[in-house]
Design a protein that fits this description.
Methyltransf_11, 6 helices, alpha/beta, methyltransferase
Length: about 220
C-alpha cells in the first residue's frame, strides 16, 4: 500500500506542491462547486429510492405541535430538499459554520438532523456527532448517508488506502476510508438503524455506503 501510495503521489506531485504553496485551494475551491453541481444530480438519481425510503418516517419524529424542526448539516447543492417534505418547508435561518461547532443552535431544539456525504470530509466525526446529539431533543433522530471504509479484507479497501492521500485534494478534504459506523456505535444513541449499500459503479473506491438513522 505504501509503495503504491508513493507512486500515485509522484504521478500527481504538482498538486501537493501547489497545495503547500497555498495555490491549490484557491484554484480548486472555485472549481469544486461547479464539479459538484454537475455530479450531485447524477449521484442523487442513483440513491433516490434509498433516500426516499430513508426519509419516509420523518413525520414520526415531529414535535407535539405536529411541526418538524429539522437541521441539515451541509446542504450542498440542495439535493435532499425535494425529499424533506418541501411543500411545507419553511427556512428559519441558515448558519455558516463547521459541523463541529453548532453553537448558534440551542440544546435540544431539533426534531431531526440530516447529514449526507458530509462526515467523510469533516475534521472530527466525534465532535460533529456530539453536536448532533446536543441539538437533538430526546427522541429526535439523526439521518445519515455516507460513503465509508470497505471491508478490510477486500480489494476495495486496499485501493481506498492507496488513493486516500491524494483523494482529499480532489474531494475537498474527503477521506475514502472513514470508519463512520464505528463512530456512530460509540455515541450515546438509544437506537441505531443502519444498513450497508453499494452505489454504482461498484469498482470505484467510494462505492461502499452506510445509510440509516439513529435516535437520541
Amino acid at each position: 500500500v505504501a509503495f503504491l501510495q508513493r507512486c500515485l503521489q509522484l504521478l500527481l506531485l504538482p498538486i501537493p506542491v501547489l497545495a503547500c504553496l497555498g495555490l491549490w485551494d484557491s484554484f480548486y475551491k472555485k472549481l469544486f462547486p461547479y464539479v459538484m453541481a454537475k455530479l450531485a444530480p447524477i449521484y442523487n438519481r442513483k440513491v433516490y429510492k434509498q433516500k426516499q425510503e430513508l426519509f419516509s418516517n420523518l413525520k414520526k419524529f415531529a414535535g407535539p405541535s405536529g411541526q418538524l424542526r429539522l437541521l441539515e448539516i451541509g446542504t450542498g447543492t440542495g439535493t435532499n430538499l425535494p425529499l424533506l417534505e418541501n411543500r411545507h418547508l419553511k427556512l428559519e435561518h441558515s448558519v455558516v459554520t463547521s459541523g463541529e461547532d453548532l453553537h448558534q443552535i440551542a440544546d435540544g431544539t431539533m426534531d431531526a438532523v440530516v447529514c449526507t456525504l458530509v462526515l467523510c470530509s469533516v475534521t472530527d466525526i466525534r465532535d460533529v456527532l456530539t453536536e448532533v446529539l446536543r441539538v437533538l431533543r430526546p427522541g429526535g433522530a439523526f439521518y445519515f448517508l455516507e460513503h465509508v471504509a470497505a471491508d478490510h479484507s477486500s480489494w476495495t479497501y486496499f485501493w481506498q488506502k492507496v488513493c486516500d492521500p491524494v483523494w482529499k485534494y480532489f474531494g475537498d478534504g474527503c477521506s475514502l476510508s472513514r470508519e463512520t459506523q464505528k463512530e456512530l456505535e460509540k455515541m450515546n444513541f438509544s437506537e441505531l438503524h443502519l444498513r450497508h449499500i453499494h452505489v454504482t459503479p461498484y469498482w470505484i473506491p467510494s462505492s461502499p455506503h452506510i445509510i440509516g438513522y439513529a435516535v437520541k
